[in-house]
Amino acid sequence: MNPTTYDKLIPLTCLAVDTPIEAVQQTLADRHSSYLFLTIEDKIYAYIDLENLCEDHKKLEIDIIKEHAIPIKHLGEWEIGHPVSLGLIFQVMGEDITLIKDEKDEYIGYIHRVDALVEMFRQDNHNVDIFKVMLSSIPMGIFVVGRDMNILNCNEAGIKMIRSSYEKVMKAKVGDIFNQEHIEMVVSSGETLLNQVHITDDMGILVDYSPIKNERNQVEGLFIIVQDLPMVEEMAMEIEYVKDLNTDLHAILATMYDEILVVNNKGKLLRYSENFIPDIWGVDDIKELKGKNLLEIEKSGKYSPSVVRQVLEKKKKVSVVQQTPSGKVILAVGNPIFNDDGEIHRVVIASRDITETTMLKDELRETKRLSRNYKKELEKLKSKNQIIYCSSKMEKVIDNIRKLAQFDSTVLILGESGVGKELIAKSIHSEGNRSDKPFLAINCGAITEDLLESELFGYTKGAFTGADTKGKIGYFEQANNGVLFLDEIAEIPPRLQVKLLRVLQEKEVTPVGSTKSIPVDVQIIAATNRDLEKMVEEGKFREDLFYRINVIPIHVPPLRERTEDIPLLASHFIQTLNEKYNSNYHFSPEALTLLEVYDWPGNIRELQNLIERLVVTTDEEVISPEFVSRSTGLGAMKKAKPIITGILPLHEARDEVEEQLIMLAMKKYKTTTKAAQVLQISQSAVSRKYQKILQNQVKHSGGH
User: What are the PAC domain coordinates in residue numbering (predicted)?
Assistant: First the structure.
């Protein structure tokens, strides 16, 4: 960095954000410049320009200062001894000041934009060369003038326009090339001077003089923009082209379906298209309104609401629906057109008669409503088909699911492993009012604690080693407005139980590595095969979390307690496999009866796996009880062995043993329900077989 640049280095005036008000005023009084830098724990994080904030700095308080603070990341940082990067060049151009760091990477002050650019132009650096190449590629001539009125740099286009060379330009005073009077006028007034024709024996150019000001509004240099006079001629031709284009635009406006109006920032109508909607204005010809104020017409009560007034008040695009006295529905869209100062210059209004469109939209809305109802009913039917049952116990479970349909309560599904808890959770989702929203499921016991935390709550960029550089959205955010199923919730570690409790209480989630909470609206369905109440007593599960998730408990009975569902489930599973493999396997009645007597410790999952094994290994389409027994060992479950005293056909022996067992059970327990429990078959099977035995006894005794 050039020694002269160090002379322009301005020390930093720093203020801690927790500084008392008296110290704030003292710091402001002792400052060296209009820029104030804010610190937290001695680290600069933001800055403000006091000159643009308030004229009376004695009235400033720390809260006002913090409110108007600009993050330090917006400023360029130039480290002494390091080459200038291309990004730094553009930062310097975009901001009034540039921060300077020493070799220890500590801030030592700042310099103004002009001084920074001057220093950069002096350096021999690849990126500065790129900047110079970009400067030279601009078709207009550009000359950068410093405070000593020497030319600091220029582009190739400018050199060609003044018919000179780079060496001559850099050695000359700016007044030797351009109009000295104009230069002095701009320097003294600080105002831009445009479109000045400068003609000499060597050149004919059009010149713009723009002052470069520092923070104290003092002129420290000039930008001189040059256009060759032949280029000005081209601009004149361009104006003719624009005139032709304007004629074409008028023709286009005349053919448009919409009514187009152009008003000024006071509401006065300036221009209009040929199409207009007379019902709005109460006139026969739109020409009658030219030059009149549409805001005054609104006050007269002829139409409301006024799109012009709303655009001027809100300073943005506004759409309103108006209704005429004759019943027409009009959509009016107002678009603001801003000038260079950011103020509204014009308002363009496009109005369209949407009476017929509104009627069609109402019909479409009703059609969509009916379609949604049909879809909802269809989803309900699909949901019913997914859960295969006929037992009274499962009927009660399904009734509870239907009752939950209109509520978003937290549900706790209890049941042994393999009973179909996730299927129950999906049914609650499909039956409920969130059926068209996401359903996500996660097994809390299948992954490690750290991974579970990041999966549930998500994490920010760089939250931990190995994290995705883009961060990750957690399950809670992904399931927002929908349902999140937490399977095996009893396996959640204590630390994560606390975070989960906070989500349920506050309805917001904080990603790993972040301090910002994100609101979420998620219905929680949890499931477990553990005794949570016992875990609470043992201190292994938080009591407050247990009560949070145990709002609506649903107990799914094990398969051994609803044996009447076994034949239906078995038939469903084998039919699914038949469709998958284009086969025609089925069970014999005796094989189904044998499946009913097994206690199924693995529940529905075990039954499904068994049936797939039978289908894969069988050689016959009809799966017999012998094959079931041989393949699974189910036939070895019976503890008592009947005593055989004579030889008889096997099927007769089976029938005889079955009859004796049923009669013994009915004689001892009286009801088919209790007999079914003891015999470990369905109540319907006991009832059917018992009635058949009684009928045979009556027939053999000669009764009718």
Answer: 314-366
Instruction: Check: CB of residue 105 under 8 Å from CB of residue 79.
Output: yes
3-state secondary structure 587-618: ECHHHHHHHHCCCCCCHHHHHHHHHHHHHHHC
Which of 122-131, 340-349, 654-663 bottoms out in mean pLDDT, i.e. has the lowest?
Answer: 122-131
Which residue did the predictor score with more confidence, 311 or 594?
A: 311
Parallel/antiparallel/unpaired status of strands 523-528 and 483-487? parallel
What is the maximal distance between C-alpha atoms in the chain? 142
For residue 372, the model assigns a pLDDT of 59
**53 CB-near residues (< 8 Å, 6+ apart):** 60, 64, 65, 68
Highest mean pLDDT among 8-17, 236-245, 418-427, 619-628: 418-427
Q: Taken in order 247, 248, 251, 252, is the CA torsion positive or negative?
A: negative
- Whole-structure pTM over 0.70, yes or no? no
3-state secondary structure of 244: helix
Strand partners, 525: 411, 485
Residue 459 gets the label, from left (phi > 0), alpha (psi -120 to 50) or beta, of beta
Question: Taking the CB of residue 290, how many other CB atoms lie within 10 A of it?
Answer: 13
Task: Mark 245-260 as b/e (b = at least 16 C-beta within 10 Å).
Answer: eeeeeeeebeeeebbb
Does the pLDDT value for residue 532 go beyond 90?
yes
Identify whether the C-beta of residue 294 lies closer than 8 Å to the C-beta of residue 263. yes
